[in-house]
Write a structure and sequence with these properties.
The complex is a heterodimer of chains A (335) and B (292). Chain A is mainly alpha-helical and 335 residues long. Chain A has helices at residues 2-17, 25-38, 47-81, 94-107, 110-113, 119-139, 147-171, 174-184, 193-212, 214-220, 224-229, 234-256, 262-274, 278-302, 311-334. In chain A, α4 packs across α12 (234-256), α6 (119-139) runs antiparallel to α7 and α9 (193-212) packs antiparallel against α14. In chain B, α4 (116-122) packs parallel to α6 (170-183), α5 packs antiparallel against α6 and α6 (170-183) packs parallel to α7. Classes of the chains: A mainly alpha (335), B alpha/beta (292).
Amino acid sequence: MAGLVAASVTVLMMCLQFGATSVEMRTVVGALLKFLQSEQTDAGGLGTSGIIMVQIRFPRVIMGFLVGGSLAGIGVTLQALLRNPLADPYVLGVSSGAALGASLAMLFGIGATFALLPALPLFGFIGGFLSLVLIYRLAQSQGRLPIHSLLLAGVILNAILTALIMFITSIMEPNRSAGLMAWLMGSLTAPGYPALAVFFLYMVVVLGILMQKAQVLNVLTLGEETARSLGIETEWVKKQLFALTALLTGAVVSVSGMIGFVGMVIPHVVRMLIGSDHRLLLPASTLVGGMFLVVADTIARTLLAPAEIPVGIVTALAGGPFFLYLLLWRKDRMA
Amino acid sequence: MERATADLAEPCLVEGSAALQVEGLSFRYAMTRDRAKTWTLEQLSFQVAVGEILGIVGPNGSGKSSLLKLLAGLLSPHRGTIRLGGRESQRLSQLDIARLVAVVPQEYVQIFPFTVAETVLMGRFPHRKSRFWSVGLGDDTEVDLVRAHEAMSETDVLSLADRLVSDLSGGERQRVIIARALAQEPKILLLDEPTAFLDINHQIEICSLIVRLRAERQLTVVLVSHDLNVASQYCDRVLMLKEGKLCRIGSPDETIRPDVLRIVYGCEVVVDAHPQTGRPRVTMPMGVGSTR
């Protein structure tokens, strides 16, 4: 764990260097130290690269780390809850549900007017929660959750929700819908430090509670009946976990749009490396997920610099083939 | 409050008393389309003494597995009561039941790669004290580790501790699941078809393990089996179900008889005495179309 934390810090520092303008490590460290000492964002006396650091790149890298970590944490939880190693908020349509909720909020201008109430995460939460419950109901048959029916239900739900989101963008004024589209494709453009702090709060609370339930997650993977015979009130626990994952998904989607496959690939890779015990898997996946997204975002920022690729495209291009590979591999093993 | 639950969980199972009491138990699944056959189980009453091994047999669809799930508290009865060590199971929480009763399910699919040791340790779940700060790996107390170790040595899976459960053979996996159930420190062990899908050597292994555990741990055992010979050789008493009704309950000599089996299964079988134990042994008769 300590190694992972150290690795995360290193990756973050490395990624701070790259961008449309590359900045030397010395400047990165200098700007970081000054920022930590003065806690000022106007960055007087930091120079151009200092301002880039403090006002753009720090928040962006931090946000990437938080979003990636959250997505991986959500993925771990959903996989245990649905007993499906391919579960991912994006693949199952939970992200789409949250995005639809948030789009609706934007359509009616709720997102624009809010200052005190976090309207976007709230709508995202409602959308995500509803789609998660719907998916579960659709896929469940006789107390079982067959992997393929779960994926199928996710695909169909995703198609419907995406169509609804498209409908919303089509009836918006062009300038607003362009912003909505950019957001939907997944972007880590940081909304500023206060918003980051709020998001961090969501993440800490949700992942903290999930960490506490790591043992429960372990037992849940054995199947619902076994979990009950080991003393878990599964109905109640499931509701809690649905709510927690939907809450964090809502928060993630409302700040960063639809970033796919992080929640599936990362837990999978980490599980291969350290095993399935959620007491380790959950925190480790969170850290690795954070690192992964920061790196993916660095690629997205630098590949066609000064233009940017939406980071959701990078993760989908990396994660999609991996998903297909798993699907094929699993089929082999089942046969 | 916590004190009270702890007392409640303390089992009052003493030699000679009933570990399980079932009275007037009726059950049906919520979504039965077949209106004519409404009850999956109807008006069952029986008792299981402490330290007894009871076998539940009956044709497919007679409600054996449902009965086991009811005893495990995984399903709730519509009528009648189930008492575990004298206390009505519907009034107990899932956790209280888990401290008394352990279940070895029929089919065990492990999707995620857990090792044997991790799987057995999960059996400690009902005994864990959940505290707000108990985040992370500090959860396994010394008692947990000792109990898991004992359970693994009793079932002879210690050498497999670091292997993945998914890589084991059927017999080894069954022993691991029994170890997990033992780590629960139950008073009552419920097994659903413990010998199904196993080769004869593993069948013998599992059956003698069950008998040995009963002796060592004073466990009360209820097992469902479609194998009449397993029930006859290893169980003290046999309960026969037919279409959800209790057909007969008694010693193997009283129940594994051609006339009873004809009623329950509707077919002729050959029953003779086992050469070693003298208990009834069931074999298929020479088929009508078979050639000799």
